Sequence to fold (223 residues):
Amino acid sequence: GQQVMQIPQYQHVQEGEDFTTYCNSSTTLSNIQWYKQRPGGHPVFLIQLVKSGEVKKQKRLTFQFGEAKKNSSLHITATQTTDVGTYFCAGPTYNFNKFYFGSGTKLNVKP
Amino acid sequence: DTAVSQTPKYLVTQMGNDKSIKCEQNLGHDTMYWYKQDSKKFLKIMFSYNNKELIINETVPNRFSPKSPDKAHLNLHINSLELGDSAVYFCASSQQLLNEQFFGPGTRLTVL
Fold:
């Protein structure tokens, strides 16, 4: 089964609204990475968080890594049409012998 | 210059055939990967090579065999193709094992 789940699976928002995707792993991860995949494109790395409880910001995007290193979230403030795509979390297990991608959240932004 | 390139971009073939997908990276990275993305967009790691050594070998049919002639190349050979092999295959590379990964444009494989 899927080791790393994301919710929601789909999100439709009006431009200017906020968006959040949540990532939950059944196992502790060494780090959490976030990728964005545009329709028809390939995953593009956004950020990596390593420390328990870490929070990082990139302009309108805020990333959090949970205290137990089993969950994470990505929050986008005031979405724009350029934010359209599927957002994936991903991460390796502690001994780096497994790597899991989340199930993804597909974001659609209406202008 | 493209950082991670794959050929071909599209591959349409009959069941039972053998095919290869090539991947090259010009980033000087030590680690390369193959991923499969199915029709539901789930991404699953298949293989990881670090300095030409196989590090991760997920539970994939042994019809799939990766070959790394050098650090910059990781090819994927698939024998006796089946309908269920239809997917998009992504190559990726990273400087350190399982850290920030750079993905290629993908190869869409369709098995008829």
Summary: The mean pLDDT of chain A is 96. Chain A touches chain B at residues 2, 30-31, 33, 35, 37, 41-45, 48, 86, 88, 90, 92, 96-101, 103-104, 106 (CB under 8 Å).
